[in-house]
Write a structure and sequence with these properties.
The protein has 564 residues and is mainly beta. It has helices at residues 15-20, 50-55, 81-89, 95-101, 112-124, and strands spanning 59-68, 128-139, 144-153, 157-166, 169-181, 186-194, 199-207, 216-224, 227-236, 245-262, 265-288, 291-307, 322-335, 338-341, 351-354, 358-366, 376-387, 394-407, 410-427, 430-442, 450-452, 466-468, 470-481, 491-504, 517-527, 536-544, 555-561. Mean pLDDT is 88; it is low at 1-43.
Length: 564
């Protein structure tokens, strides 16, 4: 079994509820308790289209918020003791939490675009299983509409439990995570985990609408066997495409031991202390002709110090200390173009897929006079775009990013990443995915490594197996989405895959790369649409096709990931 350090402790969705449901028999719940969004108006009046309502410049007269529980007791198949108990102990989301996330209010002009963006914002919160927003009735006499917001809660309490073993190393963890504390939309998490890097106990808190405002805050406090991690942030973000300004700041203080790897084994380590402080802001004219431009600015202080450890008093390569203090300026362009899809990277949920252009660029100026230990120019840029080349059954997504630091002797710590993914719906319950990822670097800082292995896509090989300067990974996967939905709690799918990847260039600490490596395999996927979003259990068997004899002929991978 295998698990990366940063994903070692991910929640098993709704596991507490699943355990209680072993003998239950249930069926899909459809939200009830209110007229469905988009229902026909009373009487014989035909329902007007959304575009026509906009052309009439109608205003919003009322907003009806309906929050359905996890299970529907009016459905005879769900009118069972277990489900009634689950609804009783579940704290239903408060309507004020939903209202605080909406991008419209009573008296606003009716815009279908704003209703759709509000639905996306609510789905992104994760603790809602379903969101539907549309106008319910239209009154031609007053030229007003009543808008209905219909949501169904997900089971938000998760037991985080994990056990994995790979290459003689065992990782495990245990914790609780609540993504909708007391129905108020707050996130709480407490956990303990043991990974190949460290033992860590963690407590975190997040609130996306402080006092029902647009302000977001978050905090992480972690103690580890090799140090600690304290993180705080607060911001009033660009919460919509039409938001005119943002401001925020963050603080991070951490001490840890960084380890370097070759062929899956630890070969070097050093202590790494981090102290980062940042403030930022931005202004925008809002959305104009389906496009949003934002002008961004801020200041940051990033301090990284390194030292030997008692275990490795003479590291193979000890990184140089860095301190960068700099103002920065940036620009972003967003094109509004989204699709609602299902059975893509999740099962049983609506997925919001961005196709519109997303451009970002920034430049920072670190100076010794500001407190930096060097003069440097920091450059960052990224682009994302999506297409439907063959119609509704095809999807192509492209993303690229680059970051680098220019000093007196040239460019350093340059990373350029390229990712492309193609989806083709060859049958209603089958999806072909083809992905290509490439990473190129130049004069990386010594605390960074380019690694390839089972934890980042080459599933038939140990984690952190190959080290180099550049990385290429190609994967083909056929996904199967089944209708099997036992107890109406767990959705099942499965996949067959092929991976090919390599690193090139010489890592100064590691052995020479082995060239192109291949693997193939198959696996099972489990998730619960009843639970909070984004947790899919992967159980894979992967077979290396041209591995050295020192590699096991079969790799068993059990991990929780955010996508299929």
């Amino acid at each position: 079994m295998r698990l990366s350090p940063f994903n070692a402790l991910r929640r098993a969705p709704g596991l507490l509820l699943w355990l209680l449901a072993v003998r239950a028999v249930a069926q899909d719940a459809e939200p009830t308790g209110a007229e469905p969004a988009g229902a026909e108006p009373a009487g014989n009046q035909p329902r007007l289209g959304r575009a026509e309502i906009e052309q009439r410049r109608a205003t919003i007269r009322a907003i009806d918020i309906v929050v359905d529980n996890v299970f529907d007791p009016s459905n005879p198949e769900e009118d069972k003791a277990l489900y009634r108990w689950a609804n009783r102990v579940h704290m239903r989301t408060r309507p004020s939490v939903i209202e605080a996330a909406l991008l419209f209010k009573v008296g606003d002009r009716y815009e279908a675009r704003v209703l759709d963006e509000s639905a996306r914002a609510l789905r992104a919160r994760g603790f809602l299983a379903d969101v539907r927003i549309d106008y319910k009735t239209y009154d031609p006499a007053t030229n007003t509409v009543d808008v209905q917001v219909l949501v169904r809660d997900a089971w938000s309490l998760s037991l985080n439990a994990k056990l994995s073993h790979s290459g003689g190393e065992t990782e495990w963890g245990l914790g609780l995570q609540e993504s909708n504390f007391l129905g108020r939309g707050k996130g709480l998490s407490a956990s303990y985990k043991h990974t190949i890097d460290r033992d860590e106990s963690l407590l975190s808190y997040s609130d996306d609408n402080v006092l029902n405002s647009r302000v977001r805050i978050g905090a992480v406090f972690a103690n580890a066997s090799d140090g600690y991690r304290h993180e705080l942030f607060g911001e009033r973000p660009f919460y919509s495409l039409d938001t005119r300004w943002m401001t925020g700041g963050s603080f991070r203080d951490a001490e840890r031991v960084d380890k370097m790897y070759d062929l899956g084994d630890e070969i070097d380590e050093f202590r790494h202390d981090v102290k980062d402080v940042a403030i930022q802001g931005g202004v925008s004219r809002g959305i104009v002709d389906s496009r949003t431009q934002r002008w961004l600015f801020g200041a940051a202080s990033e301090e990284d110090t390194f030292a030997p450890t008692p275990v490795k008093p003479v590291p193979l390569l000890l990184p140089e200390d860095r301190k960068l203090v700099y103002p920065w300026f940036g620009w972003q362009l967003l094109k509004e173009d989204f699709r609602e899809m299902t059975e893509l990277n999740d099962m049983g949920r609506t997925e919001d897929v961005a196709l519109g252009l997303n451009l970002y660029a920034s430049v920072g100026f670190a100076k010794k006079s500001f407190g930096s230990d060097r003069d440097a120019t920091l450059l960052r840029a990224s682009v994302q775009r999506g297409w439907e080349p063959g119609g509704a059954g095809d999807l192509f997504q492209l993303a690229a990013s680059s970051s680098m630091r220019h000093e007196e002797d040239g460019f350093k710590d340059s990373l350029t990443q390229f990712d492309a993914r193609y989806y083709r719906r060859n049958l209603d319950n089958r999806l072909l995915t083809v992905s290509l990822s490439a990473l190129a670097t130049h004069k990386l800082d010594a605390d960074s490594q380019v690694l390839l292995g089972g934890d980042n896509g080459l599933r038939g090989y140990p984690i952190r197996y190959q080290a180099g300067q550049d990385r290429l990974l190609f994967s083909v996967e056929e996904r199967f989405y089944t209708e099997w939905y036992p107890w109406r709690l767990i959705r099942f799918g499965y996949a067959a895959f092929f991976d090919a990847g390599r690193v090139s260039g010489q890592d100064p600490r590691a052995s020479p790369p082995l060239g192109m490596l291949y693997d193939a395999g198959f696996g099972l996927r489990l998730t619960s649409p009843r639970a909070s979003r984004g947790q899919i259990l992967h159980i894979d068997l992967a077979f290396p096709l041209n591995a050295p004899p020192t590699i096991d002929s079969v790799q068993l991978i059990v991990e929780t990931r955010g996508t299929f």
